[in-house]
Design goal:
The chain is an alpha/beta fold and 237 residues long. The protein has a single domain, classed as Aldolase class I (TIM Barrel). 46% of the residues lie in helices and 16% in strands. Strands 1-2-3-4-5-6-7-8 form an eight-stranded parallel beta barrel, surrounded by seven helices. Strand 4, helix 5 and strand 5 form a beta-alpha-beta unit. The longest helix is centred in the last third of the chain and has 20 residues. It starts with a strand and ends with a helix. It binds pyridoxine-5'-phosphate. The site of pyridoxine-5'-phosphate has 18 residues, from strand 8 and helix 9.
Length: 237
């Protein structure tokens, strides 16, 4: 299992002073040196953390793969086509939310989604749908032309009761198996931490986990390489 590291929160900290430090690109390079297999950033409509120039610099600098998380808007489609990340992850986006709160409402957007994804795929960009771990959303992702799904682990990360957590994990496992058997690549993310990631090691269908907040929060205390190492050890890498 691989680890992709989201550097949005480095930009949040940088923007708190609106100066150059800390630099999300420097963090991305350090993350790669520390064992990350990919770098993730979310260019939001309001540019509250990552900015256009960060995205351009990430594209120029990183050596692994760039996963651009974005909303399904014409502006973002043009930016993706100009930037050519290896992967675009389509996420729902609400202006007021603190983070991406739920999976993409794929059924409601299906006809537009097909048209949105086509030029990305035709230009060699992989497309992943950030969805709830449900079979219908997986089938719709495939039908829309995506080649990957990212299963939303938010519910799993929030439950406190052990039985409920086991049920959520089984929901993710079963969705991962279904997506894999349908020919989609499978990743998982949202709310994963050193305390809840270990069981993912036993879901071989999930090839990568995408982690942002927990790694950056730990990095402030123990440093980015050590925070990444902790996760890599837990996922057996
Ligand atoms: N994957 C996607 C699609 C996301 O939108 C986010 C949150 O930005 C993450 C993964 C990472 O979530 P977290 O910051 O909770 O690790």
């Amino acid at each position: 299992m691989r680890l992709a590291v989201n550097v949005d929160h480095i930009a949040t900290l940088r923007n708190a002073r609106n100066e150059g430090s800390p630099d999300p690109v420097e963090a991305a390079l350090l993350a790669e040196q520390s064992g990350a297999s990919g770098i993730v950033c979310h260019l939001r409509e309001d540019r509250r953390h990552i900015r256009d120039n960060d995205l351009a610099r990430l594209r120029e600098s990183i050596a692994t793969k760039l996963d651009l998380e974005m909303a399904m808007t014409p502006e973002m489609q043009s930016i993706a086509l100009a930037t050519r990340p290896e992967l675009v992850t389509l996420v729902p986006e609400k202006r007021e939310e603190l983070t991406t709160e739920g999976g993409f409402a794929i059924k409601a957007h299906h006809p537009q989604l097909v048209e949105f994804i086509r030029p990305l795929r035709e230009n060699g960009i992989g497309v992943s749908m950030f969805i709830e771990p449900e079979n219908e959303a997986i089938e719709l992702s495939l039908a829309a032309g995506a080649n990957m799904v990212e299963l939303h682990t938010g519910r799993y990360s929030l439950v406190t009761d052990n039985d409920q957590r086991s049920r959520e994990l089984e929901r993710i496992r079963s969705a991962a198996q279904f997506a894999r058997s349908a020919g989609l690549a499978v990743v998982a993310g949202h709310g994963l931490t050193v305390s809840n990631i270990a069981p993912f090691r036993d879901i071989p269908e999930i090839e990568e986990v995408s982690i942002g907040h927990a790694i950056m929060a730990r990095a402030i205390l123990i440093g980015l390489p050590a925070a990444i190492r902790e996760i890599l050890d837990l996922i057996g890498r």
